[in-house]
Fold this sequence. Notes:
The chain is an alpha/beta fold and 691 residues long. Helices cover 37% and strands 12% of the residues. The chain has 22 helices and 18 strands. Helix 15 packs across helix 16, helix 16 packs across helix 17 and helix 17 (503-525) runs antiparallel to helix 21. 4-O-methyl-alpha-D-glucopyranuronic acid binds next to loops. One of its GO terms (molecular function) is hydrolase activity, hydrolyzing O-glycosyl compounds.
Amino acid sequence: MQPDYDDCWLRYREVRDEALRASYRRLCSHAYVSEQSRELGAVREELRRGLGGLLGRDPHLWQHPPRTTDGFLAVGTPADMDVVAQCVDEERVADLAEGGYVITTGEWEGTDVLVVSASSDSGLVYGTFHLLRLLSNHEPIEDVHVVEEPASPDRLINHWDNPFRGSVERGYAGQSVFDFETLPDLRERYRDYARLLASVGINGIVLNNVNTQIPGRDSANEAMDVLEGWRLLETRYLEKLTGLASLLRRYGTTTYLSVNFGAPEKIGGLDTSDPNDPEVAQWWAEKADEIYDLIPDFGGFLVKADSEGQPGPYNYDADHVDGANVLAEALEPHGGRVWWRAFVYGSHKDRAVQQYDTFEPLDGEFRDNVTIQVKNGPIDFQPREPVSPVFGQMPETELGLELQITGEYTGQHVHACYHVPMWKEVLEFDTDPEGHGTKVKDLFTDEGTGMAGVGGPGEDRSWTGHYLAQANLYGYGRLAWDPDLETEAITDEWVRQTFGHDPDVVETVTDIMHDTWPAVIDYSTGGIGLMHMMYNGEAYLENHYDPGPEEWPGYTGATEDGIGKDRNSEGNGYAQQYPDALADLYDDPESCPKELLLFFHHLPWDYELSDGRTVVQTLYDNCHAGVEEARRLREEWRTLEGEIDEERYRHVAERFDEQVEHAGIWRDRLTDFFYDYSGIADEKGRVPRED
Ligand code: GCV
């Protein structure tokens, strides 16, 4: 029976080009796959499904080299299979980083062989998906020679799923994929999710929300408090996770949990969770032992501490080093790791200043198995932010880059917004142009470093709530694997696998994808460094979708005289957290990149920019341009009617209708707001508005 959800980019449609299909059939109709280990079951299943679709007929799977063919595929380690050992450089394969693989061609007793080889099972899984991607992208394979290994050792997806409610915080794709009520029963959908993750190289999954408690926010409903995520550490719930962890393991994905810093009190019955109390340390150590008895390859803990109502070391007069290290010590004997989030609150009114101020002085004090997980920017996943000054400035600490796959502030999967260009901008950022010159992407290659994508996949048929948002999940995985990949290459792969190879379709979808992010920036920020102007609301899951600029004077800095925030040497000194070359660049409005200008400077409304336009006119123009662009993208999408499958076409077309409408609401609200403060009318007569 066909599942009632989408297969995303793993569509495996039959190759129509006859010459190409003949070549694929010659080398892939017969596949010899090692039987040695558990992950190879996953390889066999994927080959059966993938080759069956692409070749238009079921492949023959062998447990020994087939003899009567004029070519075959061999998947295995050199140690397990002579065929493989004969075709690859064994030393090269042995030297590959965990997860790495080789795809190459060779010969076995006069027969051509296409080989996928690795020294680990997970490498074989990734290599198999890579091969299927080559075929899906209609790449030639007769002379193929691919050597791949992941840039980052840890490539995590963080689920913000609330296990007992079934909801997903900032997830815009329905309920949680994971049904914690019915675990340990396994759903087919778990396996298909594991396949999606493995196909792009994601190798770790945090199953539950970093908000493991929601104090005060649901106080009217006590029953809910009883059901918060911190309870997952109770034995009865841990026991439910073993089968899921085992299934994920078959696809090379390790299981992690978000934990509550107050767990020793909440679950252990201790009267403190003070990290410096030996009984607390003992409790964490025993809890870790228990977890590893159940899940031997458990990855570790993700912690949100001292932030937005979550308890942390500050509750006990301790600091983040004490907090992270006590958990790390407990995990250390088992090889586990603590991912400690830098998204903390503290003494500063301006959140931008907080993280560097809190963590940089602690550089070098964390245990080796602690990773400090830092959001890409200093605020909170805004459409565009400067790169966090923490990057490049904590050389003695393992860092992780946290990106948001889900579109909390970029239209919440009603709007199309492709995040890959934004992430590329972050990854290519030079953290110290006149110093060590390390780009962000170079910081995550050592043991203990990595990337964490906050993912929103859910029960929705599309997995992501918007068919085009699948590209963000895809792109995140691909960049975590290889941050050198160009946006265009990732888009092209994704578009072809998802929409097929018709040149007009490929070009149209590609262009739309690339133009979405700039449009969102324009209509929801004005494009010159303002941000955080969304409606918040008072409910637990604040809205963050509609505009509400007047709620945030501390972020916009709007006054009658001007707009923007002095995060410079004359203001709160945020710019000075960067190395000198960047600090100087940002400190002077004349040299500050235009797209970040108002983030660093409060400027008069009539301050003239290099193109001769004033600040306020630029804001008006950009807000209008963003909406026009959204409208144009909708028109572009409409040209695809009848050219792609009806379901995707219709869904995205409807979403674009809503996006254009909602972008107009943002434009009007922001431009009214700018006019109300500045009193300066739009030169083009659009503001003040008549109604
Ligand atoms: C999980 C923002 C989001 C919250 C999120 C928080 C975080 O504040 O709005 O939903 O909480 O970031 O990253 O911890």
